[in-house]
Each structure stands twice: as C-alpha cells, then as structure tokens.
Amino acid sequence: MNLTVNGKKLSAAPAPGQCLRTYLREHGWFGVKKGCDQGDCGACTVHIDGKPFHSCLVPAFRAEGREVTTIEGLAKDGELHPMQKAFLDAQAFQCGFCAAGMIMTSATFSEEDRNDLPRMLKGNLCRCTGYHSIDDALHGVVNVEDDVAGEACGRSVRNPFAEDIVTGKAHYTLDVPPMDGILHLKVLRSPHPHARIKSIGRDKALAVPGVVAIYTWEDVPRKLYSTATHEDHLVDPDDTYILDNLVRFVGQRVAAVVAETEGAAEEACRLLEVDYELLPAVFDPEVAMTPVAPVLHNRSVAFHDNIYVDFHGELGSVEQGFKEADAIHEMTYSTSRVQHVHLETHGSLAWRGEDGRLHVRTSSQAPFIAKQKLCYLFGLFDRDVHVFTERIGGGFGGKQEMISEDLCVLATLKTGRPVMWEFTRAEQFIGATTRHPMTTHVKLGAKKDGTFTALQIRVVSNTGAYGGHGGETLAAALGSPIAAYRCVNKKADGYAVYTNMVPAGGFRGYGASQTTFAIECAVDDMAKLLGIDPFEIRRKNMIRETDRIESIWKDPSDVMFGSYGITQCLDQVEVALKSGRGLPKPEGEDWVEGTGVGMAMLESGPPTEHRSGAEMRLLPDGTYHLAVGSTEMGNGSTTSHRQIAASVLGTRADAIAIINGDTDKTPYDTGTFASTGTVVAGQAVEKTARALRDVLMDFTARNFDCKPEDCSLQDDAIICADRKIPLTEIHAVGAKIGDHFVVRRKAYLSPRTIGFNVQGVRLAVHRVTGEVMTLQSVHAADIGKPINPMQCRGQLDGAVAMGFGWALYEKMVYDDNGAMVNPALRDYRIPAFADVPRSEIYFADTYDTVGPLGAKAQGECAINAVAPAIANAIANATGVRFPDLPFTPDRIFDKLK
Ligand code: FES
Ligand code: FES
C-alpha cells in the first residue's frame, strides 16, 4: 500500500483487518493515540485528505493513495498551526493525552463551527480539563503568563512539556518503537463471579502460530500480595495472587498468553479450555455480611466472614444528643460504582537490558512501590530492577495499583524477551479498579435553631473481590466528612465488605466523596425540616478555625489547620448564586428550578506514611536540574515543582530542567496520590532548593571573599555586595575543586493540613422527562496560595466535571451474574463538551503554613462537593429527595411520576 503521511511517502502493507490508527502507530506516528477500542474518544483523530477521521474506525487499506496528516505533521515550515498555538496559549490540556485528537479535530473548524462546540466536539473526550480551557483555546483566550525570574510562584507559567504535547512529540507509556523480539501479552478473564479452576487446556491455544507461552496459576510464585500501593503495605490485605485457581469476580485474570502479535495472543486466549467448578456468589455487601453468604477469602479463624475491616467510634453520646434534639432526620443515601476513565489505559513494557537488569516502563502513580512489589513477588534484588514512568495519560487514583507490571515481568523473566501489555478500554472497566460504592445511613439531630446535637452514620462499603484500599477509603469516609461539622455527639460504624464484584480501589476523593455526599444531603434535609437556609445551617455548624479537628476517634491525629478558608468559600458561592448570572430557566411550566450547595473538607495527604525526595544540581550553563520521585499524570506537579524551586532560587521556571518518577534517576517517592504531589513532593523540592541556595551562598562567600549574609541569588548570578558573579563562573570554580553543587532532601507527610471546597449549582429539572439542565455552576476552593492559578483552575474544572459525571451520567451496570453490561465509552458515558457547564471558579485568599510556599492540595477534594450540590438542587427544584446516585432522567422520571 502506498500513501503519504505528513508529506512523506510510506509504502507498507497493513496487516489483515488492521485499522489506520494501529498502522500509523506501528510506523512510529505516536501522536495518534489509543483511548478506546471503537471510535468513542477521538484521541486517534487524523486528517485524511484534509478531513478529520477517527483513525481507529478507518480500515488501514482505505488510506491507499491518500494524504494522511497526524499531529506531528500539522505544523508547517517550523511554524505551529494556529490551533496548536491556541492550545499552547490557553494550555488546553492537563495530561495531554486527548490534545492531539482535539487539535486535529479543531484545526478543521470554521468560525461558525467554533460557535457550536458542543456539537462539533462531540466526538472528542477529555477526562482532565472539564473542557473549560479547551473552550478558551477555541476562542483565542491566552491563559499562560510570562515566566519572570524571582516571580515564579503565583504565575500561570507554561507546562514544561506543553510544546511537545501540542506537536505530538510527548511520548506516553507505550509510545515506543517496537523492540527487537518484543512479545505481546493478553489475558483470558473469568466469565464467572466465583469459581474454582479445575483445569486449563492449553493445547489448542499453543498451536496458534506465533504463540510463545501461556501462564496460569501453576506458573506464578504462590505469594499473596495486594495490588494497592501505599507506603505502609500493611494497610492493605495480602489477598491476591498474580494468577489464582480461584476466581472471585467476572473479569479476574485466569491465564496470560504471550505471542509475537497481539492478534495471536488474543486468538490463543479464546482457545484456552478452562474447566470451572462454579461456586455461589454474593454481590450485595449487606447480604455478604450475613451468615448464609459464601465466604470469599479463607483467612485466620479470627476472620470468618466477608467483612474485610470494620471501624467504630463515638465521641460524646449520640443517645443523649438525640434526646436533646428538637428534630431528627434519618435517611439512607447511596453512591454508585464508577470508573476513573483516564484516557490512557493501563499498560507496561518490561525487558532485560544490556546491563542484565530488568527495566519496566509503566503507567503508574507509584513506580517505587511497584518496584518493591515486583522484587518481593519474583525474589529479585532491589538493584536489579528499574521501574520508571514516561508521560502518563491520567490516573485519578486508578493507577495507584500494580495491575499490569507483574505479568509483563513474569513473561520477560521466563522468555528473556521484552513483553508489552496494554489494557483495552473494556478491560479498564472489567479488570481494573473502580470507586467503592457505599451505602450510608445518616441520623442527624438538631435544635430548633439548627445547632446539631447528634450525628450518627453507618457506612457499608463494597470493596469487591479484593480489599486493596478498602480500609483506607473506609477510614477516609469516617474522617473529614464527619469532622467538618462541630457536634458534641458523633458516632460512626463502618464496614468494608468483600463481594464477588470487580475490586474497588483509590479514586479521586478517596472514600470521603461517598460520605460527603450522604452527610451534605442530610444537612440540607435537616435545613428543610427546620426551615433554615442551607448556607446558614452550614455556617452555624461547620468546624471553626480554633476547633479540634475530630471525627469519631478519641486518639489525637496529625491533622491541623495550616490555613482556614471555608467561610470565604461559602460566601463566594452564595454571592455568585445570587448574582443572576448563568442561564435562565427554560421556558415551560414543566421545568422547575432549584439551587443547591455542597461543602467538603479533606486532609492534604493520606493518614498513613508518605515520603518524597528531590535532588537538585547546578549545571555548567548556570541553569538547574531537578529530579523528583513523584510522577506526573496530568496533575501539573512538574510545573509546580519547577515553580517552587525557581521561587526559592530567584530564577525562572524555565531555567530548571526536571525529571520524575524513575527509580534509577530520581530519589524515592511513595507515589503521587492523595494530593501529595504538591504537599509532600512540593515540600521536598522546596527544602532541596533552599539547601542548594545555601550551598551556593556558602561556596561563593568562601571562594569570592565575601560574607554569606551579603549574598543573594538573582536569576543567573549571585549578587555579593556590589559584585555580580554569574552562576556559570561559580560552577566553573567549583568544578575545578570537585564541588558539583548537588543536594538531596526528603520530606515526610506530617502534620497534614486541611483543604475546603464549596460547590453551588442552579439547575432546572423537567418534571415529565426527568431531564436535568445545569444553569449555573460555581465552585470555591481553599487551596492555600495557588502556585499556578491557571493549573489550579484546571484541576478544579476537571474535578467539577468528574463530579457532574458521577452525579448525572456515569454508572457501571451489571447483570445478575455480576458481569458489566456497558464496558464501552459509548455506553458508559463520561461527560462530553456539551455536558459540562462552564463553572465560575473562586479561590479563598489564604496562605497555608504547612504546605510548600503557602500551597496545599487542590485536585482531590473539589469533586466531593459536587454530587451533593446537584442532589440538593434537584431536591430544591422538585421537593423530592433523590438519595441514590446517579440522577439519570429515567430514575428521576420514575420517582417524580
Ligand atoms: S481511539 Fe479512536 S476514537 Fe478512541
Ligand atoms: S488532558 Fe484531556 S484527557 Fe487528559
């Protein structure tokens, strides 16, 4: 086949049935991304003879004789295409995985098209941005600010990889040219929710040409572990084998096949003959807690049921508190199972290097912990394993798991060849993790004036077949959402329960999202009962700056207020909702309008251990190199780390080259999750930069005959009294005497500060169809001092959009056998451009005393306030409480009719 790709002739026959996307990627055009399996996401968009197409839907042979342009060919004569420039100026991306497809689609828009973006961009999905910055790019808005020496913090400076992202040069986890001898891995997954594997017939599968090996439970180390990644591995149960002879959910791995091609591996999976002994299954955690339920895990005699962990605590006496109450509200609220849908799916590539070591390139939020687990499972020495990340296309907690690295390493160790495994989108739904669905019963007592007298909750969390994150999310569920309100009498009981469902895991908001939803709905219901304004009941009862931060446990904690901005946030949202801005209610008496508010509080960082390291050096040209262990998956940590370092060193962010997330090249980091990218890794960067500054001052004083107290760093020189000594000169003098100006520092998470978010929503509900139309969305956040306001806004926009998805659109639907019936993006609908309102975003004016340079967590807590705000607005509009997520039109219709 002959065609032209980006102006170059290409003559190569496609494989039978190959789509144009795979064909182009095989020829090195990695700007063509894979985000789904069937034309739903738009990440693979290319131009064919100038028109945009989803290349995964185009048979490769149809490109015969055509001119194909990918993102790599959009710039002409060294000049960026205007749309690339617009995306650069607006920074219309976070992880950037969708950016190539978005730009290719948008590059063909007319002026008229740009005024109809909800329709024109319906084929391109973004999970990170909430589409706000994409809208900006398409309307010529410039969000990026100049990078000024000494003023890095507080400015919206550009992402260091921005140009690579808009030109397609940014390479993600599996954007690698085929290695010699590479094998492809595929897994057969269980069709049964609970079964014992009696035998696996491999003969037919092994006969498929190209199949190299098949691995089952008999071929793997029989060691229990948890796929969840935390600093303290004891917080997760070791209840999982790499491959097991007992399957506990539909989608569990049964066998792995490695072959010369993906097609051969897939065909072999289909030909494996598995003899299962079916076992009774249980899907409902309440049923799973009863004595009649099948027990999923054989544990010690102390644990003989499906409750993985339970927590209980009480402060004061709720019994007394309810006696003192003038009004009591009681209701059960539930949250649904949703998936992260990071646009880049899970994937890993493992190989043995010329150095004899094992190298693993992976899409992970915690490469250092993944390495520890690999060493443990395969009995490897720490020094023999290297795990690293390249650019990661989103995570949201979903990549706080080790679920693709182990099988690649197993196959590489056994075959000696490189092995690559990329999850399909369907596998993301059935074989990766989800948010924990939780059912929360709330009982709330209050005086007539709204003062709470007792708050009691009972939470049942469905952790699925395995318990990773089950305890930590439950602890979070019983933590800050309860602590957010002052009440003398508080009590909670929580249970994380095994069922034969896909395992749940870490997910943005991490357990607190679920109980925040329940409590915030209950607070509104109590306000209605007492005839009090929803803002006022919150102001009356919310935690004060001088209060102890306590939930239900009597033990002291390490949580403290580094800053306190919740009152500002409530004021900002209330004023905005009353401003009259936003859309008017649609005409017609069947539309009813309502407003709602939700408040959220969350610790910056996980309750258990977390540590980060950074290393910084002065380079001969007077710029710096910064190595940080934390990973970047679109959360913006590389940008903010450079800004923090630049601020301390009085230079520009651009003067700092950065690498991250590499067990060979960067200091240790527990992982980028629970908002630790800013608060822990950011502190490590700040400490390291300060130490390097001190080293430079001290060296200059000693070698240039001046006093340290007379020295200051300014951009590219040290000012020493009236002399200006360039850093290049300092480096040169140091190099002669063996001083290389390199320092390392570590940061440890403790104490933990607190962040606040408030979401306001005004919406209309159609009483006949159940349709919900958002008229205004307002979000206020107390994130301390925003290091990069543009990026912080983007994080909030993205979290709010994800909250809208959780509340209104997304739901994993299962049949009676525990099999997901909608494992595709077209059926499991994440918000598209048309679905997300453009939120007004506000920041409280605070400076955090715990976080680096006044900053604290930004991207996590925001989602927690969104679903309850929407729920409260729907209740306000209709007069009916909908206690179960999501609020899809059919469910609203059902109840309103
Ligand atoms: S990869 Fe082609 S549309 Fe998703
Ligand atoms: S920036 Fe759009 S998917 Fe990450």
Layout of helices and strands:
Blueprint: E1 2-5, E2 8-11, H1 20-26, E3 45-48, E4 51-54, E5 67-69, H2 82-90, H3 99-106, H4 111-114, H5 117-120, H6 132-138, H7 162-167, E6 183-189, E7 195-201, H8 203-206, E8 211-215, E9 246-247, E10 253-259, H9 262-271, E11 273-278, H10 285-288, E12 307-315, H11 318-324, E13 327-334, E14 347-352, E15 358-362, H12 367-378, E16 385-388, H13 405-415, E17 419-422, H14 425-431, E18 438-446, E19 452-464, H15 470-477, H16 480-483, E20 490-498, H17 512-530, H18 534-541, H19 566-577, E21 591-603, E22 611-618, E23 624-628, H20 637-649, E24 656-660, H21 676-679, H22 681-703, E25 711-714, E26 717-720, E27 723-726, H23 727-736, E28 742-748, E29 754-766, E30 772-782, H24 789-809, E31 840-843, H25 866-878, H26 889-896
The chain binds FE2/S2 (inorganic) cluster (2 copies).
What overall geometry do the principal axes of the alpha carbons give? globular
Distance between the termini: 59 Å
Q: DSSP strand (E) fraction?
A: 15-25%
Average of pLDDT? 96
Q: Could you tell me which ligands this complex binds, including any ions or cofactors?
A: FE2/S2 (inorganic) cluster
Helix content, binned percent: 25-40%
Number of helices: 26
Backbone CA Rg: 27 Å
Q: Mind describing the biggest β-sheet?
A: 7 strands, mixed
Kindly state the number of beta strands: 31
Strands ordered across the widest β-sheet? 8-10-6-17-14-15-16
Class based on secondary structure composition and strand pairing: alpha+beta
Regions with little confidence, pLDDT below 50 for 5+ residues: none
